[in-house]
């Protein structure tokens, strides 16, 4: 068990080293920004809004759900990178279905199962490949799609919460001038010089959250609609893999799909292996 985990960790490190500089910067940006927001909330904004110890109850009312969201945000994000959906090290079983419908990948040197596509960025075939996520530096596929969707959900929720919290704190405690909005124009800031004020800092914090909540919410709606229809991004209106709403949820989130939102550490076995899809389709249709 421990050796398998170590092997997975080294495989993860090897894949990270192959990523582009831009992807790594964006990934580190998220990994630094999320805890930074949390520490600003917990150690500055909330103590200022609710004087301790008299305001301890209200402080905890905010801190506990905030901690839960940040925990799931970070752990699901890391799980997206760590859970490998590639064909590397997997026994691609050959059946009457896979041998008939699969194609050969000259790069990976293997027969590619249904719903498996080669990623030019990761340079490997991904089982049930949905898309390549730039921020996580990896492809979202059969074994990490669950974590990606929960990451988007918690990013939407946390960003919305931050907009309300920081917005209210800014309204009560911070004076923002019109000139503070010039910080959003990098070219102008370079000309006039960087003289960050408190107002400019909170303008940036609010702007980043507005961008995050907009992008994550739209992406979440889009990808959940795909899940509902039993599709991945490469598939348009294919109905062969639509097993009904409940079964489609199990296909992505596993048998315990209804509690996987609590933590990525909850084990939820997937009903399919991501390789022999056609036999699963036939098995479903005969029920």
Automatic annotation (TrEMBL):
Q: Which GO terms describe its molecular function?
A: protein-cysteine S-palmitoyltransferase activity
Superkingdom: Eukaryota
Q: Does the keyword Metal-binding apply?
A: no
Domain Palmitoyltransferase DHHC residues, every copy: 101-236
Record Pfam families? DHHC
TM segments?
21-40, 60-83, 147-171, 191-224
UniProtKB keywords: Acyltransferase, Membrane, Transferase, Transmembrane, Transmembrane helix
Top-level enzyme category: transferase
- Record's GO cellular component, any one? membrane
- Please name the InterPro entries in this protein's record: Palmitoyltrfase_DHHC (IPR001594), PFA4/ZDH16/20/ERF2-like (IPR039859)
Primary localisation category: membrane
User: Does the entry feature the keyword S-adenosyl-L-methionine, yes or no?
Assistant: no
Cell compartments where the protein resides: Membrane
Catalytic activity as recorded in UniProt: L-cysteinyl-[protein] + hexadecanoyl-CoA = S-hexadecanoyl-L-cysteinyl-[protein] + CoA
- Tell me what topology the record assigns in the membrane: Multi-pass membrane protein
Q: What is its EC number?
A: 2.3.1.225
PANTHER family given in the database record? PALMITOYLTRANSFERASE ZDHHC16
**Comment, domains:** The DHHC domain is required for palmitoyltransferase activity.
Protein family according to the UniProt entry: Belongs to the DHHC palmitoyltransferase family.
**Annotated protein name in UniProt:** Palmitoyltransferase
The source organism is Acyrthosiphon pisum
